[in-house]
């Protein structure tokens, strides 16, 4: 199995980061495999898969490049660069800046990465022995971003933010082991500062003086990435008394490691659980939607991301549901989580049931006007 040795300082300094490029690569994986993970993804594929296939058919070299880069057990590193977080609270960097790193990859490095993702020891296939591979990969990613991700990015971004809020709450309740164990398949905390990242037989890596990032994506896709700078950088920090001369005032930039993981449960779905028609008629569709989503505790930020409703609207629905004793709330660290009461569970369960009790009718009798009159009764004996 593959695992990382993560010391306490690295784990304490880790952070969640949003990456439009990671979301785009995850979308590219979905387009390549063409197997939806849930109904919302099925609708998304139906809308965009034909155009993607037409584009790839018109560029056979580009199509071969993407298939080679998305290998069976490893991605070509140049296609999935480790994020460089920006200054904002979510560390998000514009897509154009991120994809520029793909485009600027040295051609020799791109070819070497493809050998790894293909799992080959020999030379690359002849069509891929060329210098424009980084540009072609960046062009494909840019098309996927503009045509299939950007139109949905505001909502996807809210969902990603909601996932981070949920992970942070989980971290405050159960510590890092609870937050990491279900982050992605094959990943769990082993103890002894060891983090298993997948089930592959890869040599362990030691993360010392490194930056560790966790990057959520909405599709059911995930991977790990890392970059270790080879060139030292000038240290702009003031030198303490007795420090070496300025000629030695250089340091290596810290290595960056990233775990890209899929959002869990309904957070990853575009539609989530359906709202029963009768429940919508009783409470109103928007309020019923909030109640249905509270099968597990969620914050207002998560609910805003999942429903697309404004913060004020979600707050009003929660207040009404609490006054009706269908919802309660509790504090988890800095967040307030809402969840259904037994009465709320019962209401949703009854309205969601597809099986209705049979209608009992009075037995038909001969010669009596009304229901069953004029039809022969059951034969006795």
Q: What low-confidence regions span 5 or more consecutive residues with pLDDT below 50?
A: 232-238, 243-251, 354-381
Please report the distance between the alpha carbons of the first and last residues: 73 Å
Q: Based on CA inertia axes, which overall geometry fits?
A: globular
Strand content: 15-25%
Strand order of the largest sheet: 3-4-1-5
The H/E string reads EHEHHHHHHHEEEEEEEEHHHHEEH
Counting DSSP E segments of at least 2 residues, the number of strands comes to 12
Largest sheet: 4 strands, mixed
Mean pLDDT: 82
Number of helices: 13
Supply the helix-strand structural class.
alpha/beta
Radius of gyration: 27 Å
Helix coverage percent: 40-55%
Oligomer: single chain
Task: Explain what the structure shows.
With 381 residues, this protein is of the alpha/beta class. The protein is 43% helix and 15% strand. The protein is built from 13 helices and 12 strands. Strands 3-4-1-5 form a 4-stranded mixed β-sheet. A 4-stranded mixed β-sheet has the order 2-6-10-7. Strands 8-9 form a two-stranded antiparallel ribbon. Helix 8 (153-181) packs across helix 11 and helix 9 crosses helix 10 (285-293). The longest helix has 29 residues, at 153-181. It is globular, with a radius of gyration of 27 Å.
Short note summarizing the structure:
The protein has about 375 residues and is of the alpha/beta class.
